[in-house]
């Protein structure tokens, strides 16, 4: 096909293509397949100028073009088709004695046979009898669709394609909704690959002869076109895939024929240009005949391609099933690459542009990959200018696609556009991609890193050409500028990780980094800080070879080669930084932020090299000297904590140089202790001036920070700190700068003392003294909890949680000799801690009073989460009773957003400790809330909030109702007892009856026998006059909701609320005067639990019925509705083009009464089967949103959240829970 004479004959006419028999019609109208005589000589070829007419006759639409002339036998066969009745579908191919359809299907399904051998065997049978061979191929296609029926020779000769398809539809297997192409598991991939390979080999084997015999491929494509228009999904899916693969083979053949035609034409022109005497007349005539034959072959192939494109692709690229749409788009990408002369035009590219808006991510993914292949070809770029200009905005919006795989491929596509097109992307367009380097998904971030690095390299290369310079310094400079302008200064590790794959060498250029930092006139102050942060992040990446926290990565172990490379990088960076780190610390010793970063560098060193390399040993003394100087110079908590962490690493006993580090640490702490002691007497007497208080406070800060890393008990700082705290609290001279570090010093001293007691065998007197110190510190902290200083109060609470856990019964289980150290909190301390939760954790007062920034709110929330986690640990590990958890449970609903994960985990852990006591604690928390509501103005809204909390707590009992029988019964009995408890003086009678409404939220978890006994217990507790009250009736209805129905223990309980079930009649009570206590005891005693009961499945009757209906109607689900429709106008790229979703036309179906009058009695059952296979148009519209999650679309507007997120610096709930229950 020449470029000027496209095989599609103006694709702009496709929009006017008749939609008869397309997606929206129930009647199965298909192309009338051309029939051939059963026997007789080979028919002469028809004139080639009618190829276009034949192509249109192969499409699935009814055309006004008259059919080509047919031989007499074929006409007779068609005449008989009106009178012949359909023969029953059989399982045998009578006319085929060679390879059978089942043999081909088994070979394809197994995937182990060589497709060339299978195709050769079929070709042998086809050459013997082409009708029988075609019949084998047709039955193979039918079997590949999962259909039970077989096309017989009589059906092939006497029936049209539409009639054959209708007959096959009646024989379709309704037992399963699966068919070979949708079978789950690896079998699907194997079958699909084998089927595509079979099709490819078939076309390749026939491309020189049988493809031009005017029988095999036209007949095959006509049948596939009819099947692709079927409303049975299996037929439509399988036939579309095969048709697209055949089309791909035809495109390859068309390209080969075009090349042969051009070559032969050149030979003819060359021979014809010779003088008449030199020409070879025979050769010219032969070349002319060859050219004519090749032209006819090309017209034949173009006709089949035209019919397939119009009859299958144009309709199925917008099919409802995403797999079909993806298959069409995938093959279109192959056609664009293989035959650009015919396909690489706006008429075909528009389908890719429209599919970028598809609602299913697999389709968008195939579309983007097809575009990547097109943009990779340099010679295609000139033809893509219009497409790029029209759809660039959509591609830029897709970088935030909900499907991360699509987003990654779109970024790669935009990189190709940036590199290959002349104009590339403007800077504001690149701004859509730059922030993705901070995305939490590593694949997307790495793709954005590649884009960013290429952009930076282009800028540097252009500047170097002007200035004549080169090197990594320029790259570092521009990377620093980007990092500062992006304003994500806490995410340097994520930027480095994104660039690590493409710029690994540049980011490991330690020499350039340190040279720039040590220059006197180098970078500006902000640039120095940014470079140091990026350098430390690169050190961590090189030493640990793992992504930063929060960035997802597949769990794979490093190979031996990667481990060796990692160790090599670590030794290299250690050798470089050990001599230079003291110089860097000396230069930036006054800058707290830079020093904090630089102090992290030795943590990534191979510290053993301080001894293994003799010339590096002297640099250890320089590092320790600088470290001590930094401690004496700074008071910032972050700097001091970094120094303490480094001291802890250098003092590890595994290193031979640890004695030198210990000596340096001891000398530093001796000086700090002596300084603090000099101010202590004045502080205790209250005579110290402001300078003395400030000096003492800064010294205590340094000591407290160092105490967190090393044992400081030998300096005996506990008593001075405790005396200082007591004097300050008693005098109400509250200085947070002095008291917070004093609290830390005393607490760390107690922690180290406990650790020393565990690791040694102290005397009994020593243990008693330590317990006395612990009790004294708890009293001081208890007083601090009621102070009006937030920092002091919060620090005291957090230290209490840690110390009470450290001195609990659980911590000494493995050391019975330490039982003396066990200290339980006093009642007053329990009350103060519970009051602290209510006043300062479950309260918004801090945020309401302070007009704080968003970052400050996150910090406050993180502190509250830590405090709540500390309190929950005390409950879980037995320091506090389970009843203490009521202060936590009753805020589960109100503060679910901030603390829901912690409270939920606490409820779950409490059930493991004592299921019954946990259930009673849940009930007690609801009772407390109810009592608080009664003391205030009683409102229905408050009661609704408590009921909502009860619903959330009821769901925590799980689905195994046999396992939670006893806890639930205990909860209900406590609730009933509370509702009918005797009033105290001054209280109204039966004021707690409304609590039964709250209790009813737990009734749906009860088993039938428990409901009956609880109903009897309710009558024994309830006064007879109160039985008719609304609250009592509601609770009775909740108990009786399933008591009269058939037991469903197999299903594991009622998943739905019992309020929806009409109440059954109650049984009369046997004795009116039953005693409440006896009823309670008999109920609890009757609860017996078999040890081997299976976990019941939670199944809803409504869901089960819906599933059955869905299975019955969806065995061969018809979902031919279009996912999106082609615009009416065929203007390829209209300005402001928007995708419109058009409702499918109403389809006319026969009702059951109509079928009885319009159909033969013998075909009644089969037609009813057909109706069950074809979905009603109205049902498609109603179930489209329910059954198929099609709406995966991404809206790029600012109102929609993207699926990726920036890594948060906030402590995640997972990390809190890991620490909570470690």
Topology of this structure?
Blueprint: H1 51-57, H2 72-81, H3 101-110, H4 115-128, H5 130-144, H6 153-158, H7 161-170, H8 186-206, H9 216-228, H10 233-272, H11 281-316, H12 322-338, H13 340-343, H14 346-355, H15 361-375, H16 385-397, H17 404-420, H18 427-430, H19 442-467, H20 472-486, H21 492-499, H22 504-507, H23 510-518, H24 525-544, H25 560-587, H26 592-598, H27 609-612, H28 618-633, H29 637-650, H30 658-685, H31 690-707, H32 718-731, H33 736-759, H34 764-784, H35 790-806, H36 827-841, H37 845-849, H38 854-876, H39 886-889, H40 896-913, H41 915-935, H42 940-955, H43 965-979, H44 995-999, H45 1008-1021, H46 1030-1040, H47 1076-1085, H48 1101-1113, H49 1152-1158, H50 1164-1173, H51 1177-1187, H52 1213-1220
Helix pairs in contact: 1-11, 3-5, 4-5, 4-8, 5-9, 8-10, 9-10, 9-11, 10-11, 10-12, 12-15, 14-16, 15-17, 17-19, 19-21, 20-24, 21-24, 23-25, 24-25, 24-26, 25-28, 26-29, 28-29, 28-30, 29-31, 30-31, 30-32, 31-33, 32-33, 32-34, 33-34, 33-35, 34-35, 35-38, 36-38, 38-40, 40-41, 41-42, 41-43, 43-45, ...
């Amino acid at each position: 096909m020449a470029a000027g004479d496209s095989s599609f004959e103006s694709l702009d006419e496709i929009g006017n293509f008749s939609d008869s028999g397309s997606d929206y019609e129930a009647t199965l109208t298909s192309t009338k397949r051309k029939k051939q005589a059963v026997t007789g000589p080979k028919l002469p070829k028809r004139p080639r100028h009618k190829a276009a007419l034949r192509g249109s006759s192969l499409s699935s639409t009814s055309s006004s073009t008259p059919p080509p002339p047919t031989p007499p036998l074929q006409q007779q066969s068609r005449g008989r088709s009106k009178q012949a009745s359909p023969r029953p579908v059989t399982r045998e191919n009578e006319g085929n004695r060679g390879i059978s359809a089942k043999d081909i299907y088994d070979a394809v399904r197994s995937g182990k046979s060589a497709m060339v051998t299978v195709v050769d065997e079929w070709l042998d049978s086809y050459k013997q009898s082409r009708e029988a061979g075609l019949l084998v191929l047709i039955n193979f296609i039918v079997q590949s669709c999962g259909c039970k029926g077989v096309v017989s020779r009589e059906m092939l000769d006497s029936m049209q394609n539409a009639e054959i398809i209708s007959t096959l539809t009646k024989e379709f297997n309704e037992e399963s909704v699966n068919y070979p192409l949708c079978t789950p598991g690896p079998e699907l991939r194997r079958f699909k690959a084998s089927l595509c390979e079979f099709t490819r080999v078939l076309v390749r084997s026939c491309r020189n002869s049988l493809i031009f015999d005017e029988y095999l491929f036209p007949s095959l494509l006509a049948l596939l076109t009819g099947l692709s228009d079927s409303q049975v999904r299996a037929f439509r899916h399988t036939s579309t895939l095969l048709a697209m693969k055949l089309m791909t083979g035809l495109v390859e053949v068309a390209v080969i024929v075009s090349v042969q035609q051009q070559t032969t034409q050149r030979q003819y022109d060359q021979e014809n240009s010779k003088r008449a005497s030199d020409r070879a007349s025979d050769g010219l005539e032969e070349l002319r005949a060859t050219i004519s034959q090749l032209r006819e072959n090309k017209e034949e192939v173009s006709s089949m391609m035209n019919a397939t494109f119009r009859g299958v692709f144009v309709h199925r690229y917008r099919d409802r099933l995403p797999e079909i749409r993806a298959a069409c788009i995938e093959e279109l990408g192959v056609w664009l690459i293989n035959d650009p002369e015919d396909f690489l035009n706006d008429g075909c590219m528009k389908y890719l542009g429209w599919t970028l808006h598809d609602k299913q991510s697999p389709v968008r993914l195939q579309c983007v990959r097809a575009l990547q292949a097109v943009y990779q070809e340099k010679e295609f770029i000139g033809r893509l200018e219009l497409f790029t200009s029209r759809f660039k905005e959509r591609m830029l919006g897709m970088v935030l696609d909900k499907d991360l795989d699509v987003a990654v491929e779109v970024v790669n596509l935009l990189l190709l556009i940036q590199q290959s097109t002349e104009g590339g992307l403007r800077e504001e367009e690149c701004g859509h991609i730059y922030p993705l380097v901070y995305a939490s998904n590593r694949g997307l971030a790495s793709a954005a890193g590649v884009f960013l690095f290429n952009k930076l390299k282009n800028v540097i290369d252009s500047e170097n050409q002007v200035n004549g310079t080169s090197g990594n310094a320029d790259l570092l400079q521009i990377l620093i500028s980007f990092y500062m302008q992006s304003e994500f200064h806490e995410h340097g590790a994520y930027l480095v990780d994104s660039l690590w794959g493409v710029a690994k060498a540049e980011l490991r250029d330690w020499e350039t980094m340190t040279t720039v930092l040590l220059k006197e006139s180098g970078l500006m102050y902000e640039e120095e800080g940014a470079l140091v942060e990026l350098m430390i992040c690169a050190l961590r990446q090189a030493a640990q070879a793992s992504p930063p926290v929060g960035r997802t990565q597949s769990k794979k172990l490093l190979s031996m080669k990667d481990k060796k490379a990692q160790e090599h990088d670590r030794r290299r960076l250690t050798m470089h930084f050990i001599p230079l780190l003291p110089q860097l610390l000396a230069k930036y010793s006054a800058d707290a932020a830079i020093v904090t970063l630089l102090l992290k560098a030795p943590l990534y060193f191979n510290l053993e090299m301080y001894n293994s390399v003799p010339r590096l040993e002297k640099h250890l003394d320089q590092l320790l000297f600088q470290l001590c100087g930094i401690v004496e110079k700074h008071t910032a908590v972050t700097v001091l904590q970094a120094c303490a962490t480094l001291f802890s690493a250098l003092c590890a006993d595994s290193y031979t140089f640890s004695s030198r580090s210990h000596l340096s640490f001891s000398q530093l702490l001796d000086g700090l202790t002596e300084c603090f002691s000099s101010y202590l007497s004045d502080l205790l007497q209250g005579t110290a001036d402001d300078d003395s208080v400030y000096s003492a406070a800064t010294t205590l800060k340094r000591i407290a920070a160092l105490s967190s890393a090393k044992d400081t008990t030998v300096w005996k700082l506990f008593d001075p700190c405790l005396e200082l705290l007591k004097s300050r609290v008693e005098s109400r001279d509250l200085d947070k700068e002095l008291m917070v570090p004093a609290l830390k010093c005393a607490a760390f001293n107690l922690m180290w003392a406990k650790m020393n007691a565990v690791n040694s065998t102290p005397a009994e007197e020593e243990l008693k003294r330590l317990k006395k110190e612990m009790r004294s510190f708890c009293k001081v902290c208890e007083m601090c909890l009621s102070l009006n200083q937030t920092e002091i109060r919060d620090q005291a609470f957090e230290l209490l949680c840690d110390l009470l856990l450290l001195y609990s019964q659980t911590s000494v289980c493995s050391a019975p000799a330490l039982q003396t150290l066990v200290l339980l909190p006093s009642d007053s301390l329990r009350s103060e801690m519970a009051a602290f939760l209510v006043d300062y954790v479950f309260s918004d007062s801090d945020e309401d009073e302070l007009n704080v920034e968003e970052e400050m709110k996150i910090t406050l929330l993180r502190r509250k989460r830590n405090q709540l986690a500390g309190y929950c640990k005390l409950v879980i590990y037995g320091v506090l009773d389970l009843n203490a958890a009521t202060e936590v449970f009753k805020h589960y609903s109100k503060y679910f957003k901030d603390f829901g994960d912690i409270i939920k985990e606490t409820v779950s852990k409490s059930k493991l400790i004592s299921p019954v006591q946990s259930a009673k604690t849940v009930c007690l928390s609801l009772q407390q809330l109810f009592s608080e509501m009664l003391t205030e103005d009683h409102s229905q809204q408050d009661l609704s909030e408590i009921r909502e909390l009860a619903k959330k707590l009821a769901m925590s009992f799980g689905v195994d109702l046999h396992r939670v029988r006893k806890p639930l019964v205990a909860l209900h009995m406590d609730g009933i007892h509370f509702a009918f408890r005797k009033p105290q003086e001054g209280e109204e009678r039966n004021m707690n009856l409304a609590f039964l409404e709250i209790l009813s939220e737990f009734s749906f978890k009860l088993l039938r026998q428990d409901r009956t006994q609880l109903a009897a217990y309710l009558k024994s507790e309830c006064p007879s006059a109160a039985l008719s009250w609304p609250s009592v009736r509601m609770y009775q209805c909740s108990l009786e909701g399933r008591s009269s129905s058939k037991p469903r223990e197999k299903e594991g309980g009622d998943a739905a609320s019992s309020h929806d079930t009409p109440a059954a009649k109650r049984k009369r009570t046997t004795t009116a005067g039953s005693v409440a206590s006896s009823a309670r005891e008999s109920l609890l005693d009757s609860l017996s639990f078999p040890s081997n009961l299976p976990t019941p499945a939670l199944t809803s009757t409504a869901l089960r019925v819906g599933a059955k209906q869905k299975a019955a109607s969806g065995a061969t689900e018809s979902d031919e509705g279009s996912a999106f429709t082609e615009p009416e106008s065929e203007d390829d790229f209209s300005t402001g083009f928007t995708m419109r979703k058009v409702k499918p036309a109403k389809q006319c179906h026969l009702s059951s009464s109509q079928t009885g009058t319009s159909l033969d009695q013998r075909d009644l059952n089969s037609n009813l089967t057909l109706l069950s296979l074809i979905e009603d148009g109205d049902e498609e519209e109603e179930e489209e949103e329910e059954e198929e999650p099609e709406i995966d679309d991404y809206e790029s507007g600012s109102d929609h959240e993207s699926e990726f997120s920036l890594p948060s610096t906030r402590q995640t709930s997972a990390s809190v829970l890991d620490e909570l229950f470690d």
